[in-house]
């Protein structure tokens, strides 16, 4: 039996065309595509072949060749760059959309625009065309500068969110905003006052101004914590406290400025306001509200804070604050006295005159 002869594999014989061609692998949409070009083909030749075979016009072509030369796109800076000069392991990625893909996208965009125009036409049907409002950017800038930087209700009191809305209403009041701009008032903090902490046997504090506008506190709630005071009374107190940003003592200069601010607020209050906060009724002193030492102002500028309602520093320091129960009892007592005075006045008016 003859020994088996081990033969060497016959080498693959390339045709002349294959010897003169270059098989180039290109990544497109994540898949390899083999493109056949001549051995002396250039980057410009590759672009032409992609346009013819893949229907990707040169304007949509990008060739990412890594590691070098990087991103190339027609028209090339070096159109005669030979492909066989690229590194042997260079990776070529083709980026671009075919003519049909571009047409499909354009068609989709046109259809979308038509639908949007139809929706706008339907929404605007029957509506009157309104002229574009001119925005006074100077006023916008000033309102952002001359305002209350922070609003803060007292979180330990009932429904602080209502107090916050009250403070927001004061901040956004057209009259207050106009006065703040005119006098260039900037207040660091506008906050709520706790009635129990600022009610003594001698006085009720309605407002505080600390360090000429660093902090302004306002007594928003009634003494019995059963509602909120009348908005315009609180706004009047705020005008008072804003005047203390300029003048500390209660002299003629102070009262002139306070009156001026009040008039400016009333003049610029285009809302002519007055609805109550939420569904609750405000406590309203009515026409018998008196701007006297017991309600609105007497005391002085002491230690960087103005106390509204104290008589002197000695009285303010010696008077002990009432507890909440005492404050509520005193409020009920005062309401009973007022009612008794009203009844006496009515009886006096109805009695026959003495002969």
UniProtKB/TrEMBL annotation:
Residues 322-355 have a biased composition (Basic and acidic residues). Pfam families: WLM. Residues 139-337 form the WLM domain. GO terms for molecular function: proteasome binding. The lineage of its organism: Eukaryota, Fungi, Dikarya, Ascomycota, Pezizomycotina. Residues 305-355 are annotated as: Disordered. This is WLM domain-containing protein. Residues 310-320 have a biased composition (Polar residues).
């Amino acid at each position: 039996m003859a020994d088996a002869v081990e033969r060497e594999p016959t080498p693959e014989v390339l045709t002349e065309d294959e010897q003169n061609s270059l098989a180039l692998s290109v990544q497109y949409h994540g898949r390899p595509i083999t493109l056949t070009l001549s051995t002396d083909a250039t980057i410009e030749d590759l672009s032409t072949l992609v346009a013819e075979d893949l229907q990707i016009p040169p304007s949509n072509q990008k060739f990412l060749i890594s590691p070098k030369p990087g991103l190339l796109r027609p028209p090339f800076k070096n159109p005669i760059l030979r492909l066989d000069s690229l590194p042997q392991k260079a990776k070529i990625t083709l980026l671009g959309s075919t003519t049909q893909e571009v047409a499909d996208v354009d068609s989709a965009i046109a259809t979308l625009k038509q639908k949007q125009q139809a929706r706008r036409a339907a929404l605007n049907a029957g509506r009157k065309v309104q002229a574009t409002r001119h925005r006074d950017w100077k006023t916008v800038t000033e309102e952002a500068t001359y305002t209350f930087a922070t609003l803060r209700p007292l979180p330990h009191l009932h429904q602080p969110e209502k107090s916050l809305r009250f403070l927001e209403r004061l901040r956004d009041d057209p009259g207050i905003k106009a006065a703040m701009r005119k006098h260039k008032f900037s207040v660091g903090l506008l906050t709520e006052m706790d009635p129990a902490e600022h009610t003594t046997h001698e006085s009720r504090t309605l407002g505080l101004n600390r360090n000429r506008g660093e902090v302004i506190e306002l007594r928003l709630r009634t003494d019995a914590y059963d509602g909120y005071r009348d908005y315009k009374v609180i706004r009047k107190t705020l005008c008072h406290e804003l005047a203390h940003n300029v003048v500390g003592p209660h002299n003629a200069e102070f009262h002139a400025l306070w009156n001026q601010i009040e008039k400016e607020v009333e003049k610029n209050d285009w809302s002519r306001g007055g609805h109550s906060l939420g569904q609750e009724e405000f406590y309203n002193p009515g026409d018998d509200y008196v701007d006297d030492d017991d309600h609105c102002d007497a005391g002085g500028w002491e230690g960087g804070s103005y106390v509204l309602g104290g008589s002197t520093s000695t009285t303010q320091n010696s008077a002990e604050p009432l507890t909440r129960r005492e404050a509520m009892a005193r409020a009920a007592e005062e309401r009973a006295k007022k009612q008794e005075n009203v009844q006496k006045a009515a009886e006096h008016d109805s009695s026959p005159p003495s002969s």
